[in-house]
Amino acid sequence: MKKPEFTFVIPTFNEQDVIIKTLEDLNNCLEENNVTAEIIIIDDSNDKTIEILEILKNKYKNLIIIHRDKGNGVGSAIRLGLNKSKGRYSIIYMADYTSEDLKCFPEMVQKFREGYDIVQTSRFMKGMTIKGYPLKKTIANRVCNYFVRIAFLRFDLKDYTSLYKAIRTDKINKLKLESDHFDLGTEIVLKAIRKKYKIIEVPVSWEERKGGESKLKLSKFALKYFKRVMKIWLTYY
């Protein structure tokens, strides 16, 4: 396989119910768009996910699997995958995403062709829909995003909490990422703003996962988001 243009980094934790469909949709999308890409999966599962992945590795030659017996959170898994990336562009992608989530991929590719350093998805752009998201999470997400937009004076961006984003791989190390958890997506974009990277959003609709269990617990991670934002803000200006 020649050096890929894209690397998809997918963290997995007990995704046995969805991983087959996710990889099928993703590889179909790559083929339809005539794009070369490697897929790096960092697996922290204790169910049958790793067994399924080992079987799928025979089918998908672009699949790279890193299994950790003792993972340290979704953010640490993503950082490891980004560090291993060989693609020109690295895309953070989640194991429960579907073909609907990939509809924005051609636009992401186009934005990189136009010279952007980061292309992140936004659930809050005009015409997008959010289905099945709990009310508490919806309110917290909105409040967080409005707070960040005001604190960093970047009103052109609307979805700072989105993990589904792509970045030029040669720009990643300069950000000195630290987060081990879901706030990594916010850390990436805020540190990129500080570095004056060219950032743009593309629209994506969102729907609650069809299988498995959501790993984002509001009570567990809300404070982490706040601490991450404040730590970056205090050294921003």
Mean pLDDT: 90
CATH superfamily: Spore Coat Polysaccharide Biosynthesis Protein SpsA, Chain A
Query: Largest sheet, if any?
Result: 7 strands, mixed
Shape: globular
**Residue share in β-strands:** 15-25%
Sketch the topology as an H/E string, one letter per element. EHEHEHEHEEHEHEEH
Count of separate DSSP helical elements: 7
Q: Find the CATH topology.
A: Spore Coat Polysaccharide Biosynthesis Protein SpsA, Chain A
Strand order of the biggest β-sheet: 3-2-1-4-7-5-8
| Record field, number of beta strands | 9
Helix content bin: 25-40%
Cα end-to-end separation: 45 Å
Number of domains: 1
Structural classification:
alpha/beta
Question: Any idea what the CATH architecture is?
Answer: Alpha-Beta Complex
The CATH class name reads Alpha Beta
Low-confidence stretches: none
Rounded to an integer in angstroms, the radius of gyration calculated over CA atoms is 17 Å
What can you tell me about this protein's structure?
- The protein is an alpha/beta fold.
- It has one domain: Spore Coat Polysaccharide Biosynthesis Protein SpsA, Chain A, CATH 3.90.550.10.
- It contains 7 helices and 9 strands, in the order E-H-E-H-E-H-E-H-E-E-H-E-H-E-E-H.
- It has helices at 19-32, 49-59, 74-84, 105-113, 135-152, 184-194, 218-233, and strands at residues 6-12, 37-43, 63-67, 89-92, 118-122, 130-131, 165-168, 199-203, 206-207.
- The strands form 2 sheets. The chain has a 7-stranded mixed β-sheet with strand order 3-2-1-4-7-5-8, with helices on both faces. The protein has a two-stranded parallel ribbon with strand order 6-9.
- Helix 5 (135-152) runs parallel beside helix 7.
- It is globular.
- The model has no long low-confidence stretch (mean pLDDT 90).
